[in-house]
Design brief:
437 residues, mainly alpha, Growth Hormone, Chain: A, 19 helices, 0% strand
């Protein structure tokens, strides 16, 4: 039987059922995750009288500097284990841990139990991460791989956009714990999809043992230029992870979003009577994901032929500018502008970072280098959580000078830019910068 033209050309009909199955899984997992993360830091520090848990910001910083690095570190081991024991089994484990972690968090009120519950969630998320991209890589080919991973990234941001926008505000009014119950149901339901629909993709002929995986870590870490670039780039991600911590505290405690609320409600008034929409913490995540959904294709087209490392520097410059804008004023539209510019900087820098790693990696070790490139998230979140909480308590809670907080983070961005400029000048391999990506 001959293939249809769309299958030959790699269109939507060229994807098998397993592809769409994991896209649905990705949407619900990321929607649940970002739905929780869009308000977690606010919920944990909010007073008990207001429905929160009343933890100190410093203690929350420790939680975030523990669970988020796990999300970036565990995929190293999870990918190898999944190749040996099967993707389907690994997904059962991941969704069970995710659902249990969220559910236990909804029941917990003590610091130790919340911490433990979130670690369980993070373990599940860390094991989930490599399975979806691995499945997509195995069910696509050169005809449709680009479109397939484009849909994959779209589903991530669609979940991060819709769950905080539509579900979190409603559930929050019922009770903060319902947000975690929503995430438990969203990820737990994927156990049924995994049982009834997902099919084990073909195993690779050669699978790596745990010792071989650890040897790979040593091999990569010996490449000092690669490690240095990751460390420098991590500076930008210290800024990024503030979007889920200090930025949310600042919004909740300092910002008057009335001008934004009035404008949005005037617009909604064209379609409904007496709208009462308010901008709250979860909408920071909505802005970030919404900007990526709307502009990622345009930004990618603009920078398609530009050298990778200089483009990364431009993106980080925009992100740093977005952070610096927060220091200018507490006026609501200034805050929105800062988040928008930061998001544009993120979507400019990060895809080029992935491209750059692929270019500088030795030809026979590209997959290995790309696998360990996510260490930027381990470093950025590990430092960002504790540093952000410590600086916030000092400059905002104690000194009442929030502008100094954003200036310091902006200086971290400037240091990252200078570091990459020096790296580009003295250490960067010449080959990638003579090519366009």
């Amino acid at each position: 039987m001959s293939e249809t033209p769309e299958k030959k050309n790699g269109g939507f009909k060229s994807f098998p059922r397993n592809f769409w199955t994991v896209i649905v899984m990705e949407f619900f997992e990321r929607g649940s995750y970002y739905g929780v993360m869009s308000v977690l830091s606010v919920y944990l520090v909010l007073s008990v009288a207001d429905g929160g848990l009343g933890f100190s910001k410093s203690s929350v910083g420790l939680i975030k500097s523990t669970i988020t690095p796990l999300l970036y570190l565990l995929p190293i081991l999870a990918g190898g284990l999944a190749d040996r024991f099967g993707y389907r089994r690994t997904l059962f484990f991941a969704f069970a841990m995710l659902s249990a972690g969220y559910f236990f968090t909804s029941l917990s009120t003590s610091y130790s139990l919340v911490f433990l519950s979130l670690i369980i969630m993070a373990i599940g998320a860390g094991f989930f991460k490599p399975i979806i991209s691995g499945t997509i890589a195995r069910v696509t080919d050169e005809r449709n791989s680009g479109l397939g991973f484009g849909i994959f990234y779209w589903s991530i941001n669609l979940g991060a956009f819709l769950f905080p926008l539509l579900l979190v505000p409603y559930l929050k009014n019922l009770g903060w714990n319902y947000i975690f119950i929503m995430a438990a149901v969203g990820t737990g339901a994927m156990l049924i999809l995994n049982l009834l629909v997902y099919k084990e993709p073909p195993r690779p002929e050669n699978t790596k043992s745990l010792s071989e995986t650890l040897k790979g870590i040593v091999l990569v870490l010996k490449d000092y230029r690669f490690v240095l670039m990751i460390v420098i780039y991590s500076g930008f991600w210290i800024l990024y992870f503030q979007m889920f911590d200090t930025v949310l505290w600042y919004l909740t405690e300092y910002m008057d979003m009335t001008p934004v609320n009035i404008t949005i409600n005037k617009f909604l008034g064209l379609f409904m009577d007496n709208p009462n929409w308010t901008f709250e913490a979860e909408h920071v995540t909505v802005i970030n994901a919404g900007v990526i959904i709307l502009l990622q294709l345009l930004i990618s087209a603009i920078v398609r032929k530009t050298p990778a490392l200089p483009t990364m520097i431009v993106g980080i410059t925009l992100g740093t500018l977005g952070m610096a804008i927060l220091a200018i004023s507490t006026y609501s539209w200034v805050f929105i502008l800062g988040i928008l510019i930061f998001s544009i900087g993120e979507m400019t820098a990060h895809p080029k970072f992935i491209s750059y790693v692929g270019l500088i990696a030795p030809p026979d070790k590209k997959a290995l280098y790309l696998g360990y490139s996510f260490l930027y998230g381990v470093i950025g979140s590990g430092i960002g959580g504790i540093l952000g909480a410590t600086l916030y308590v000092h400059f905002v809670d104690n000194m009442q000078k929030p502008s100094l907080l954003w200036i310091i983070f902006s200086l971290i961005g400037v240091a990252t830019i200078i570091g990459l400029l020096l790296y580009n000048r003295f250490l960067a391999p010449q080959k990638p910068e003579s090519q366009v990506v």
